[in-house]
């Protein structure tokens, strides 16, 4: 295994470097996405999964749907478990715990989820920008990548009470700390990542790629005690995951409660099923624009776009001779996601889960570095897909 050593910038960034760029970007993305979320249902006839138009729907329903509703329930009432059907233990605890803190201060749970999602997005963009400033020269690479992330196709999930921005923030912060050799910080962020969503455990792969040269050197010099901190950081997300499973065992008598209810209620289980996977690949199973149910069509499109973005990113990163951990981050997303390919309910959220492919905006920015035409094209593509996702979600065309 080969990987680059932690980045060593020529001069440290000023403490608040990046806010002047990130804050206007964040505000512009909020305006676009919230306006689209309110306007889209008026332009497209709401379908069966829609909660209605903004003027005729209570805000707690309009802005708190599907998973956001589950997190609001956990924040208000705690966890419940029913092995025969869907129940709240399927959702990991960090996000609803933070929501509960705001709820105790008097904020409604649905509003707390929205506020936390937006705060996490703002901090994510700041951390992401500063990380890339340390990784790349000139600064235009960090600027382009951060703009592409702010308007990424999955950014529609960053305006309501979903875990995507917190999931990305904890991943980016952990990897950024690891690249600087700050292993204690990396371990804490990785722990938080593992408490955010079940697939957080895959963060161990890019962290291992970053830590490997240092671990190998420590082993060669017999500095075994010094290996402890990077080793703990690598498995930090696993500790977070295990902590939640321990809670389930203590509270409900089984550490598999989240898996049991996910299988009973949503048909989700950790198994690879090639037959169902083939059904989601255009040209083999479902076909673009030919399936009669738009939701099924969007599953196929989501798979297709995520796969195309992954292949493009791998090629672009390879062209620029980037360290192995970027490729490992791409592989980490697919490694666990493909294990749940037997279930339409989970893979129907492919367009949302693909937010975990954070190397994609980096690859786009690097590709556009020598191709001035590419940057506005990528930006238009990202923003367009983000608005399309908003339209599909808030007009009720598919389950998320």
Notes on the protein architecture:
It is a single chain. With 400 residues, the protein is mainly α. It has 19 helices and no strands. Helix 5 runs parallel beside helix 7 (164-179), helix 6 runs parallel beside helix 19 and helix 9 (204-221) packs antiparallel against helix 10.
Helix-strand blueprint:
Elements: H1 19-43, H2 59-62, H3 67-77, H4 94-104, H5 109-135, H6 139-150, H7 164-179, H8 183-194, H9 204-221, H10 228-234, H11 236-252, H12 257-266, H13 274-278, H14 294-319, H15 324-337, H16 344-347, H17 350-353, H18 359-368, H19 374-394
Helix pairs in contact: 1-5, 1-6, 1-19, 3-4, 3-5, 4-5, 5-6, 5-7, 6-18, 6-19, 7-8, 7-9, 8-10, 8-11, 9-10, 9-15, 14-18
Short account of what is shown:
The chain has 400 residues and is mainly alpha-helical. The protein is built from 19 helices and no strands. Helix 5 packs parallel to helix 7.
Total of DSSP H or I helical runs spanning 4+ residues: 19
SSE order: HHHHHHHHHHHHHHHHHHH
Strand residues, percent: under 5%
Q: Give the helix proportion (percent range).
A: 55-70%
**Main structural class:** mainly alpha
**Biggest β-sheet strands, sense, barrel:** none
Question: Which properties best describe this structure?
Answer:
single chain, 400 residues, mainly alpha, 19 helices, disordered N terminus
